[in-house]
Amino acid sequence: MPEIKKNWYKEMSVYQIWTRSFCDGDGDGIGDLKGVLSKLDYIKSLGVDAIWFSPIYKSPQKDYGYDISDYRQIAPEYGTMDDFKAILDGAHERGLKVIMDLVINHTSDQHEWFKESLKGEDNPYHDYYIWRKGKGKNPPNNWKSTFPGPAWEYNADLDKYYLHLFAVEQCDLNMDNPAVRNEVKDIMRFWLDMGVDGFREDVITYISKREGLPNGFPLPVACGMEHFTCGPHLYEYLQEFNDEVLSKYDIMTVGEAPMMTPDLALKFIDERDSKKQVLKMMFNFQHMEADCIITSFITTKFSLKKLKSAMSNWQTKLYGKGWNALYLENHDQPRIISRYGNEKYRVESGKMLATMYICQSGTPFIYQGQEIGMTNIRLPELDMYVDVATYDTYNICKKLGFPHKSIMKRIMKASRDNARTPVQWTSGKNAGFTTADKPWFYINDNYTEVNVEDAEKDPNSILNYYRKLLKFRKENEIVIYGDFKEHYHESDKLYVYERNYEGKKLLVICSFSDRIERFKAPKGFDLAKGKVVLGNYDCFNSGFDTFNLRPYETKVFLFE
Ligand code: NOJ
Question: Measured from the CB, is residue 327 less than 6 Å from ligand 1?
Answer without folding.
Answer: no
